[in-house]
Write a structure and sequence with these properties.
29% of the residues lie in helices and 36% in strands. The protein folds into three domains: 1-143; 168-263; 372-457, no CATH class. The chain has a six-stranded parallel barrel. The protein has a three-stranded antiparallel beta sheet with strand order 22-24-23. It is of the alpha/beta class.
Amino acid sequence: MSYTDNNNHISSHQKKLWSDITNEIDKSMTSTIQIRNYVIQDHVEFYAFSKPVSFFDCYFLKDIVFRGIHPKYVNFFNCCFDESLSVYASFSSDFTLDTVSCKQDISIFRGTYESCNWSFADCSDITIIGGHFNKLYISTKNKEIDNLSLRSNIEGDINIVNAKIEKIDVSGLNEKSNLSIFDSNINVVNFKNYRNDGKLNISNVTRLKNNKPSMFYVDKSYLGKAEFYNIDFNQYDVVNFDDTSLVDCIFVNIIWKPLITAGFEYYIFPTTDKKERELFTWVNKNVNNFLSPHTEFRTEKSRILYFRKSREVYRQLKYALSKQGDVINEQYFHSKEMIVYKKSLLWFSRDFGTKLIISLSQWTSNFGQSIFLPIFWLLIGHLILCTLAWLYSAITVASIGDYVNAYLILINPLHSYNIPSENWGTYEISFKGALVLIDIAMRIWSSYMIYNIIRASRRFIK
């Protein structure tokens, strides 16, 4: 809410110059100063006062700059800044911004802060570069913050709670801080070039309900022992972890997105869907080095590199969840890891055997995740081999019933090579010469499928 847009609302406010305000404060005999319903018309250079100062329902038409060390508290309640608010100062007591609006940006440059409680009714950009905060709480009322940026070595207890934010950027070293983001609605969460050697807690974070593209993006970062609670990653259009350490993270009550990407600069999503194209065009515009979507990969080399990066992400998530005893999601990410590993290998190369083994494991059992796939392929594969044996007269039958009996006998990998007709009635089983290869194939196939059935039935048993 700006002065120029709300003349009727502030028509009763008294217009003042900042020099008039400072004279009033200096001359005041009260122990605390309360300034109400003023419109400050000029640029404000805010140096320390000897008394606590609180502003109520005031309008600042020009930019305001804090300098020096402020031993007493400074509070703003229901105030509006038509231009920027910049802080190059330290506060030994409270520095409160309660239900304030800022038409332009708020910038905090280092300094030391005792207790800060900031709630914003309407604000464009907030940037915090360094500084030590004993306690900092950031929240919103009414409209969301367009962009919140936390940079460099911020120290202390930082809490973003009950906030609506279009985009939050976090970078730099977190060595002596406790950063908590909880009960908030954020469309774009972006950790880039970030190292967490302190505490990082992200809990109950959801996207904004404004139909804009959303993204959870972590790039070239070490998350350390970051804690994630009650997050539905599936609600975000893009979830991306690129060159990031996740092995020590704690994940509790997480809903995972089926596709977790690992670096858009290496992979171009094949899509003809209009909504997806709009999404990745937006991603290209909002994150450095992202590429616009096309219908194919750029090069074979970049495609392989992308899948190698994806494998590393799934491997780390698998390991992190394994340490927590989350066997279900550990197995889930194991299968995702194997799938992208297979995609990173080429058929016509020295990796042919490895890719074949992984492909068979995926097709026949989903890497031990499915008990129905190996049963299905056991019956189908054995039917093909048994029919082949019948066509080459290794099996002699007089009826369909005899064929079924022979089929069931041969599905046992420990069956005999020869079963004379006088022992079993109207059919005979005899593998001789080259036909022994069919019998060997039956035994191998049955054994492999039985192994996959046992593997799937015991996948949650450690």
